């Protein structure tokens, strides 16, 4: 006789697992055969209620964020997503909530189709702790072309994709803390920022450009300051970043009064607390990479063809000191913390 867990899997997750290797989620394992001449790239990330997402987030948003944070890691390695396994730890209130499970499965199905990254298997368990989703994702790259963290050299240019800090500002707005209540931000821009926090959009279309041009790359998940430090440590180098070149949300459009320490050519400035939040807040899921100078032109061309915005923000330099972030006045900025950390 089927168990309650079997029924749950058959009802909500079997329709998501469309790949032949998933075997309809009727076995203890799945199979995947990579194309000839390709390597598998493996990654795993977990998201936990109250840590990575808000208890009030919608089931669709939770499902998509859980998968996309893994897709982001694959994109940074130059990999094409190919499939994922999921362990879902459900508190009582979610395990018996058919609406929650149906919407959660719908979010997974939509993103599995969008990224061509189907569910192949996993496990469901009950927990007395918070809702937790652990995903093991894998992708493929042409053999020996995965982009590592460890290849940056002095003189290589530092690039980021997209905009840095949107998710951190969006979280500030979503929780409605005291700072955000002082921002006379227009509703459409507030909604756009919160969307960056709820559902990241990793730039998967940049993968080919990274494999062709990048000497090192990783995604920006825990904050630009801390993640650049990780890339530099892995490569045995340091970096010098010009903060005014870092692409950030244009608060002038939103009419957010943030006078302070970060200036741009048009005279707009960020206050120090907001700048700290933007550069160290995390949840960006953009790509940070180092590009040799002779490949910069090609990288820009390939990124433009892929319709992904990339911005040069600094340079890799010799040494083992933490990366320098230089403000508009030419002085190095200091940060209370470099990035989010669980420990």
Please characterize this protein's 3D structure.
The protein has 343 residues and is an alpha+beta fold. It has two domains: 4-142, 2-Layer Sandwich (60s Ribosomal Protein L30, Chain: A), CATH 3.30.1330; 157-326, PurM-like C-terminal domain (Phosphoribosyl-aminoimidazole Synthetase, Chain A, domain 2), CATH 3.90.650.10. The protein has twelve helices and twelve strands. The chain has helices spanning 4-13, 59-76, 92-95, 98-114, 166-175, 178-181, 187-198, 207-213, 224-235, 251-254, 272-280, 296-305; strands spanning 38-48, 80-90, 119-126, 132-142, 157-161, 216-220, 238-242, 262-263, 269-270, 286-291, 310-317, 324-326. The strands form three sheets. The protein has a six-stranded mixed sheet, with helices on both faces. A four-stranded mixed sheet has the order 1-4-2-3. β8 and β9 (269-270) form a beta hairpin. The longest helix is centred in the N-terminal third of the chain and has 18 residues, at 59-76. The relative contact order is 0.16.
Number of domains: 2
Order of helices and strands: HEHEHHEEEHHHHEHEHEEHEHEE
Question: N- to C-terminal separation?
Answer: 44 Å
Shape: globular
Give the tags.
60s Ribosomal Protein L30, Chain: A; alpha+beta; four-stranded mixed sheet; globular; six-stranded mixed sheet; 343 residues; 2 domains
């Amino acid at each position: 006789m089927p168990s309650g867990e079997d029924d749950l899997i058959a009802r909500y997750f079997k329709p998501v697992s469309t790949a032949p290797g998933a075997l309809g989620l009727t076995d203890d394992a799945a199979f995947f055969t990579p194309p000839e001449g390709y390597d598998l790239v493996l990654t795993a990330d977990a998201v936990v209620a109250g840590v990575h997402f808000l208890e009030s987030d919608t089931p669709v948003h939770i499902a998509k964020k859980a998968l996309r944070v893994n897709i982001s890691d694959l994109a940074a390695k130059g990999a094409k997503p190919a499939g994922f396994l999921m362990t879902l730890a459900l508190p009582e209130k979610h395990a018996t909530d058919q609406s929650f499970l149906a919407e959660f499965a719908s979010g997974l199905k939509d993103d599995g189709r969008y990224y061509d990254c189907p569910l192949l298997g996993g496990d469901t368990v009950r927990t007395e702790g918070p809702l937790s989703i652990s995903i093991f994702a894998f992708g493929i790259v042409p053999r020996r072309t995965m982009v590592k963290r460890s290849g940056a050299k002095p003189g290589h240019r530092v690039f980021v994709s997209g905009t840095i800090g949107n998710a951190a500002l969006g979280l500030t707005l979503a929780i409605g803390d005291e700072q955000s209540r002082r921002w006379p931000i227009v509703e459409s821009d507030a909604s756009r920022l919160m969307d960056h926090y709820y559902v990241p959009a990793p730039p998967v279309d940049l993968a080919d450009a990274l494999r062709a041009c990048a000497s090192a790359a990783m995604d920006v998940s825990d904050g630009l300051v801390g993640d650049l430090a990780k890339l530099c440590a892995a490569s045995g180098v340091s970096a010098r970043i010009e903060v005014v070149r870092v692409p950030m949300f244009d608060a002038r459009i939103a009419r957010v009064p943030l006078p302070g320490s970060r200036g741009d050519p048009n005279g707009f400035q960020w206050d120090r607390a907001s700048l700290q939040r933007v550069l160290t807040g995390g949840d960006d899921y953009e790509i940070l990479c180092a590009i040799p100078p002779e490949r910069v032109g090609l990288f820009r061309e390939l990124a433009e063809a892929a319709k992904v915005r990339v911005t040069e923000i600094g340079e890799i330099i010799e040494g083992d000191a933490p990366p320098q972030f230089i403000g508009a006045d030419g002085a190095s900025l200091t940060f209370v913390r470099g990035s989010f950390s669980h420990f």
